């Protein structure tokens, strides 16, 4: 499994140290079932509706990351983060089109427990005391889990249903992987200059994201 583009950075070390948990997040039975062609389409539709709600909250989270970047970073990070923020408009439109295709009524969906918990975590980044280092690390690992999970669904030998290939290609593409690697480089640079407390907080956020991602996949499978 490819677990990072920055082989010698702090983030790659975390991915190795916490490899078991990272694998649980990126090789979850839900996404593995997509690759194997055995996915329950009711579970996929549940994921689609819940993830649409998550992305709406993710917009505000990413805006908070950008604000922290403006205040705490003197690099060119802003352009990269803005690129991610701009892409979310297209992503929300994609969810609406997919929902229509699958007859998922987005207006009638309420967030399930795991989704609510994840969104509450994202909302916590509005706290100005949370550093840019922690925020950019969190942004990187959220995106990376999706990229790795869906890239696996389109690797050689996959049996992903034709009607789900577009979903997997959206997040599993080489272009999105490159974007994730650019975020990883920013995170590693920030971590290299961070205080020990900030680095510890960033690692805790990294682990929390993995927990929440596993919970989100579980929710998609079991409606929890």
Contiguous helical run count: 10
Order of helices and strands: HHHHHHHHHH
Describe the largest sheet.
none
Q: Structural class, please? A: mainly alpha
Q: Per the principal axes of the C-alpha atoms, what is the gross shape?
A: globular
Beta-strand fraction estimate: under 5%
Count of strand segments: 0
* Radius of gyration based on Cα positions: 17 Å
Q: What's the average pLDDT?
A: 94
The percent of residues in helical segments reads over 70%
Low-confidence stretches: 1-6
**Alpha-carbon distance between the termini?**
29 Å
Keyword list:
mainly alpha; disordered N terminus; 10 helices; 224 residues; 75% helix
Write the layout of secondary structure elements.
Blueprint: H1 10-17, H2 19-26, H3 29-36, H4 41-72, H5 77-101, H6 113-123, H7 132-152, H8 165-172, H9 174-192, H10 196-222
Helix pairs in contact: 2-10, 4-5, 4-6, 4-7, 4-10, 6-10, 7-8, 7-9, 7-10
């Amino acid at each position: 499994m490819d677990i990072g583009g920055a082989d010698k950075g702090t983030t790659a070390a975390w991915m190795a140290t916490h490899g078991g948990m990272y694998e649980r997040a990126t090789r979850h039975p839900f996404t593995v079932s997509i690759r194997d062609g055995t996915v329950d389409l009711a579970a996929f539709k549940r994921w689609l509706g819940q993830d649409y709600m998550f992305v709406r909250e993710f917009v505000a989270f990413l805006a908070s990351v950008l604000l922290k970047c403006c205040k705490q970073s003197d690099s060119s990070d802003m352009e990269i983060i803005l690129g991610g923020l701009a892409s979310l408009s297209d992503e929300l439109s994609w969810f609406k089109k997919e929902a229509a295709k699958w007859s998922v009524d987005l207006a009638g969906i309420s967030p399930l427990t795991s989704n609510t918990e994840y969104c509450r975590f994202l909302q916590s980044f509005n706290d100005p005391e949370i550093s840019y280092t922690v925020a950019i690390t969190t942004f990187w690992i959220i995106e990376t889990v999706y990229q790795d999970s869906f890239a696996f669904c389109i690797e050689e030998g996959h049996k992903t249903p034709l009607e789900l290939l577009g979903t997997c290609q959206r997040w599993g593409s080489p272009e999105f992987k490159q974007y994730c690697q650019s975020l990883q480089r920013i995170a590693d640079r920030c971590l290299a200059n961070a205080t020990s407390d900030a680095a510890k907080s960033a690692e805790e956020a990294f682990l929390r994201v993995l927990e929440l991602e596993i919970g989100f996949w579980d929710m998609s499978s079991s409606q929890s």
